[in-house]
Specification:
Elements lengths: L16 H22 L13 H23 L10 H19 L3 H16 L5 H22 L8 H5 L1
Helix pairs in contact: 1-2, 3-4, 4-5
């Protein structure tokens, strides 16, 4: 053993502070989800109501937070690469487009397609036309599944009215 308590032969691992912050943030989001779900009015007399899914998601976030906390304390998190803000800005732009297109009556298909294309660009894909075609087909199928099979309404726009 070395004087610092390590078992020699390797470098000592340090607590990853950023990993601790990420674990705390995941736990905080889980707490907000549970709190928000508790404020939903119960519409069912028995069984699960609308508050069930946020709680399930919160449980998943807590499990991620615990795993991240353990790895952060052990110093086992992988080293981070240099921060490139471009992917983050592309995804933020996609979310803004989603909100704007739905807000101005463009509908689910166009809005979700815009988010799909910007997200694929954020992950490094440069085939915008192919991604647009894939997105339009996928979101049209999703819209039809929700609208026709599940009879759940999604925001309708010009393309949805054609269907």
């Amino acid at each position: 053993m070395t004087p610092d308590g390590a078992s020699g032969g390797g470098q000592t691992r340090r607590v990853d502070r950023v990993g601790l912050v990420i674990a705390a943030a995941l736990a905080a989001v889980a707490a907000v989800l549970v709190w928000d779900a508790s404020k939903l009015p119960s519409t069912t007399m028995y069984g699960m109501g609308p508050e069930a899914m946020p709680v399930v998601i919160a449980v998943g976030l807590v499990m991620l937070a615990i795993g991240n906390l353990i790895d952060a304390l052990r110093g086992n998190l992988p080293p981070r690469e240099s921060a490139d803000p471009r992917p983050v800005w592309l995804i933020i732009a996609g979310l803004a487009l989603l909100i704007a297109i739905i807000g101005f009556g463009g509908g689910f298909i166009l809005a979700t397609s815009a988010l799909f294309v910007t997200t694929s660009a954020a992950f490094g894909r440069r085939a915008i036309l192919a991604d647009s075609a894939i997105a339009l087909v996928m979101t049209t199928l999703i819209y039809l599944a929700f609208d026709k099979l599940l009879t759940l309404s999604l925001p309708a726009g010009p393309l949805e009215r054609l269907l």
